[in-house]
Amino acid sequence: xxxxxxxxxxxxxxxxxxxxxxxxxxxxxxxxxxxxxxxxxxxxxxxxxxxxxxxxxxxxxxxxxxxxxxxxxxxxxxxxxxxxxxxxxxxxxxxxxxxxxxxxxxxxxxxxxxxxxxxxxxxxxxxxxxxxxxxxxxxxxxxxxxxxxxxxxxxxxxxxxxxxxxxxxxxxxxxxxxxxxxxxxxxxxxxxxxxxxxxxxxxxxxxxxxxxxxxxxxxxxxxxxxxxxxxxxxxxxxxxxxxxxxxxxxxxxxxxxxxxxxxxxxxxxxxxxxxxxxxxxxxxxxx
Amino acid sequence: xxxxxxxxxxxxxxxxxxxxxxxxxxxxxxxxxxxxxxxxxxxxxxxxxxxxxxxxxxxxxxxxxxxxxxxxxxxxxxxxxxxxxxxxxxxxxxxxxxxxxxxxxxxxxxxxxxxxxxxxxxxxxxxxxxxxxxxxxxxxxxxxxxxxxxxxxxxxxxxxxxxxxxxxxxxxxxxxxxxxxxxxxxxxx
Lengths: 287, 189
Fold this sequence. Notes:
Largest interface: A-B, 13 and 13 residues
Helix content of chain A: 40-55%
Order of helices and strands of chain A: HEHEHEEHHHHHHE
Oligomer: heterodimer
Structural class of chain B: mainly alpha
Strand content of chain A: 5-15%
Radius of gyration of chain B: 22 Å
Shape of chain A: elongated
Shape of chain B: elongated
Low-confidence stretches of chain B: none
Number of strands of chain B: 0
Low-confidence stretches of chain A: 11-17, 247-268
Number of strands of chain A: 5
Largest sheet of chain A: 5 strands, mixed
């Protein structure tokens, strides 16, 4: 009997110890809780404003949490504990969206509220982490990574496919991109060819030809075209066009990212969860 | 005096389990439905997964077939919240456990096919599977907590007495970590 009681006592206390090892969940003081110290004060305010703006539009209740460490738990275990304690999102709408970043374990996770799972699917969360967040984090651009993820999430909810494609470009296969570039060049070259240059010195023509040849072949080289014959043919075409006065187009630039600056939201007076539920949707990643 | 008795009586009634026990039963059933739901969700992902893998690794017949069979078995075993018995739960767990093991082997085999791993279809399914496994884990945790709460009510005085006199509920079955489950290779991507 004594042994039984002793072993019960032991198991109870050891359970306590294990539970105490878990990292304490910080207080939900603001939309951006930065225990890990990843943001400058300005970045923090910008992100807070962005989140407040999204929240006040009634889209969802995002949250950013960074920590020094998540302790002995996996990122998923830690994340759901946070979600269950903070209860972000509305009680009926369950539209909380928690972004978590840990310093020591280099883990990140997006925890998607039950109400958002249909739109921000596990796959979308995975994409955001792999294409937007981790690349930025690796460059130490933490605020930018979160900002883009917030933009992307907002675009999903607004069904703004254009914005989504801007942020995460659909990877085209090099062959298609090369074909597109080729056709584009041809079109623009022909358009420009009808403008005549005043000076048509022989030297000038040769120079133009060489420049055109280079301009014509370089993009294809960059896209991975190594076939020497093809490059030679392209170079020749470019040279002829330049020599005889066809102008080459300037290069086209691929669309860049543009992250919106923090929109003025309301003052961050009180921030708290509205009783929203989470059922474990989302995605995790290592950065 | 009568008022005091009345107040005491009403306090006793509300605290003794007449409300909390049926509420706990409902909670257990709801949590079980969620568990069942998430397992089904995993099941639904599998045909797509099998087809994708077939496209790149068609001669891994044995592994593919074991997944298909395990899935068929698991789908047959639907347990309703109202007829949850310890035996049924054990059978359910065993069937799902076998599916977990077959899936684990399939993912390990897929590691050997770089083209498969690189395909967007496969990585999409991978992230969906990961998400579903997480949801299953969380749904089970919540069910376990719910059953703990219910079992406490029906075994601990004074609510246990209320149960004895008014409801007659048995303890609800609990998930137990079987040997098979501890041996399941964790599906890590």
